[in-house]
Amino acid sequence: MGHKDADVCEIYYVNEAHVRNARQALSPEREILSLAETFRTLGDPTRVRILQALSVEELCVCDLSKLLGISESGTSHQLRVLRSQKLVRYRKEGKMAFYSLDDAHIDSLMNEALRHVREGADQARERAERIHERAGQ
Amino acid sequence: MGHKDADVCEIYYVNEAHVRNARQALSPEREILSLAETFRTLGDPTRVRILQALSVEELCVCDLSKLLGISESGTSHQLRVLRSQKLVRYRKEGKMAFYSLDDAHIDSLMNEALRHVREGADQARERAERIHERAGQ
DNA sequence: CTCTTTGCTGCACATCTGTTCATACGTTAA
DNA sequence: TTAACGTATGAACAGATGTGCAGCAAAGAG
Q1: CA of A20 to C1' of D27 (A)
Q2: Sign of CA dihedral A126, A108, B87, B32
């Protein structure tokens, strides 16, 4: 079960130095929490769909609900979560509430993540192709 | 409770068009799911700390465990999650396993998100905490 | 060989999440 | 005023999530 206090890992000063270096690289606690909460908010397929949809044009709860295929209540709940992280903002016009992306970073974030995801998919496809080549011989 | 089939929202052709436009903007389903899963993986304070630490230099499970203040088992669990999303990779040297960031997008992703957070998500976090407090009671 | 060390994994459990249903709020029209 | 509509909120529940514990495998030390 790992190790106790006076241990090999702690004796080597280089590792201690590594830990200290890494610790200095960490953002302040509240930034870490904010970061994680922002990512967690993005970490839901429904909310990803909402943000991709809003990257084109503003939409009302009603339209989003149809697009997503979930209830308007559920849509409203998700929009509140996105609002709480300042990922979307809304504009009221009469009874309607039109939602849009809150700031420009969000689109770049999504695109950067999309690039990462696609890179993984590409690597997987290349691996699969190599396997098929070998299998074909 | 919203509205039924033949409804105002559907009668105005513009809204129908909006829904169609937005739907076309959506990534394929598998990409949406991959995106969400990647973000969800990033959406945990412990894993954010791991990635920030690894952005400086590679570290072993032992060092990370000390840095994070959690058990080595827990650290290993989290690293497995990060590996499954190709966010970190590892190199074995004897008994030790040295982990590092897997690709360059990850650092940009984190920095972009950090910029968003610093722009004023602190107030948002407080609001979210209030919501969670109320939800927890 | 046996013992230690380092990391990985299955299991369990408390907590959290996303959704729907029912209901309340604010706006517009009659 | 009353009624209808678009949206927001509260309650509740199935399902998922993060972490520690115990056990195991691999590699080196003795």
Answers
A1: 28
A2: negative
